[in-house]
Write a structure and sequence with these properties.
Leucine-rich Repeat Variant; single chain; elongated; alpha/beta
Amino acid sequence: MRPCRALLLLAAAALPAAAADPVVERALAALQEDSSLKVRTQAALVLGSRGARQAVPALGHALATDEAPSVRIAAAAALARLADLAGREPLEAASRADPDPAVRNAAARALAELLAVSVRSVALEEAHGQGGKAGREALRESLARHLRRQGFAVVGPGEPAGYRLKASVLELDVSQAEGKTVIAVKASVVAVDSQGKMAAMVEGGARLRASGGSSAAAQRQLTDRALDAAAVSLSEDLAARLR
């Protein structure tokens, strides 16, 4: 019976997916309950081929806990094919800690594929421009935080991603007027897609005024707040354009 079940799963994977897909339901049940590693392996592959994003939690669980390396490898491949960023965490964990080197390698490849095809993944490079190293790093950290709030997966420079983001501090002015410190910043971000083409360019700025603030520490704090406000605007604009 079990070989027949695997063949039925394989044949059914070629059929068009429906809103309530009985093939997906059977594959989910097989992945979670069947004692045959061949059936579980085939079930994972079917879930990926059917685009069953509702299966991401089950695939992640299989990747983390199934005793058969072939099932774990199939689960990793399915998570990559589904291109749902919810699969990132189990893939990262498996690529680091799975006891089988073949599974670790498969999970690492799947993670790279997942991030490369996902338009919601961005590699945030080191910022350039004015403000000194501290100011540029403050902008980068603020961008990373606000981009995550906009639903992006933020990875480091050189890691696979749907877009590469190049941030710059264009202007950073500090002035004193009527006993108050005024901080004015302007920043930009250029998004480059996986083909090396510019996908978006956004600019944002902020102006803060505070009483006193003449010390270096106070000015640094105000500058960080202004850069953070600019990062909010930049992140919102990127979220609107990189859909």
